## 1
Amino acid sequence: MSAAPYPAGLLRRLAAAVYDMFLLVGVWMMSVFALLPFTDGRALDGSSPVFRLYILFVPFLLFGWFWTHGGQTLGMKAWRMRIRRTDGSPVDWRYAALRYLGAWLAWLSVVGIIWIAIDPQRRGLQDWISDTETVVEPPQ
């Protein structure tokens, strides 16, 4: 195995995404639970635009925090991957926001994710939009 980081492939990214989805579902549950005192314990109206924006903003905070504080989500850490700028520098909140928007486009279109398997640099739509790359770190 190489001592230098190399681009992460599609299967490794999908495996990390499964790990991260479990974490995200838990965080979503806690974030909705945190709103209950403001609704007198009643169920929230899922059709409310404010609630929908809140539900979209929670993952941005979660993933953005991980990406800007070490470049790894929990799933990425398990699979030894890291997000970084293409010049090797860490991701800041501006690039995290671009990556988050790009990830939504990539996952919704599916082509943006499948492209990782085709691209020689293994970059997906979220990588192109945010000028970032996902690399596999060598074992320690």
## 2
Amino acid sequence: MLVKKLLYHFSLSFIALIAACQSKKKAPHEAAKTTDKPNIVLIIADDVSWNDIGVYGHPHIKTPNLNRLAQDGMLFTEAFLTTSSCSPSRTSIISGLYPHNTDAEQLSWPLPEGKKTFVQALKANGYWTGLAGKYHLGDPVRNDFNALFEMQWIDAPIGLDRRLVGDGSGCDEWVKLLKERPKDKPFFTWLASFDAHRPFYDDGSCPSVHNENDVQLPPYMPDTDLVKKDFALYYDEIARMDSYIGHVVKELEAQGVAENTVILFIADNGRAFPRDKTTLYDGGIKTPWIVKWPAKIKAGTVNSNLVSSVDIAPTIMSLAGLTPFKEFEGYDFSSMLLDTSKEIRDQIYAEDHFHDFEDYTRAIRTKAYKYVKNFYEDLPNTPSADIIRGRSWQSMLEEYEEGTLNETQLKCFIKPREKEELFDIINDPDELHNIASNVEYAEVLADMRARLKETRSQTKDFLPKRRTPDDFFRETGLPTKYRIRPRPSKAEYMKAAQEGRVLMNPDFKEN
């Protein structure tokens, strides 16, 4: 009897051992399922406008992978950013704060030590966190990531456009990051493209898949050969980024984790063309926003409710089963992923600060109207310095000198600017006609003014006592004597101001 029992237990153990061995040979997705918490992949395009993606209605631009991402997930049609400037947008996203409360509201100011981030929270609660591509967040944030594959630059003289090591996309280590992650933890990755940031090289470094016939110009850009050439090169960079997104999706599928992985695709600000990037028009702050999560989101869903990039931090923490920080100024939009009737906000707030040139502008956007207040109306609406050094601006300058620009195209040059701007978004989606002085919209104007005043008060958004000197000449995009790389922090600027000093580049020499 004892022998039979021993043989019985031995046979059970042997069967269990065989089953365990066989389980090790199962498909990768079965071995990878170690948690119910979703993996989260945030993909951030650089300087890409929402309507330059095929699924948003562009008939010629080649974005098959983004189109498929939307077909398999949820497409947001009313998504916005808190600002239209690269690093302030990114620090706002990671901190869940409006730019003026990050203490990193100006271009290249780092997010200071002590500011909480959602990545920090994920890492502290069992997530593996990684970043690949463009960084632009400041040194204190580096420790939030278990792995950091930051794109590398080839040095260039101060004020001139630099080039990237590799193919110039900033995406070439995205898949490497996913491959090297530990497979026994839920993961978060911040995949940051450098496409489609200027400069646009016409040297074959980016595959040419578009031509001037594919271009759809917004009405505030002149229809010239140089402008269309610039747009075609910009489209090529979007297409290159799109191909890398396809590689990411395939890698997630190969690892067997695609089903429970949330992919969120956005841009940090709009296209790098006049009247888009660094402005608060929709060309600057409206963003493509696509979410794919096969386990939860119904494929092919369209969401037309308002959402802001300041909502990303609390939402990601909520999806990870964590309580969002009380400091966050955005709202959790996770309920919108399951039910498109859910609304979390009736307006968005956006702001513009120094980006190469001084500015201070604020905007309120509802589904129906946009209100913009230009606090420094004495300054022209100058685009960023890299735009000024590009083909489109040079073409606009020629048209300006010849007197052939229309009223909207002249807005980048005119000063003083209009103090207030009001647009009927439904009837004027390109924001061409300022109706702030139209008596028929007096009630709308009063309402939008009140919304702006209340938001500024609630978020403690105050006009600074001092203006920041321009880093470049507005006419040429070449550096001025104030040019500093890297730019000093807000604390360094404030200390200098208190001491009556102006920070200058120590290497600068007067001509």
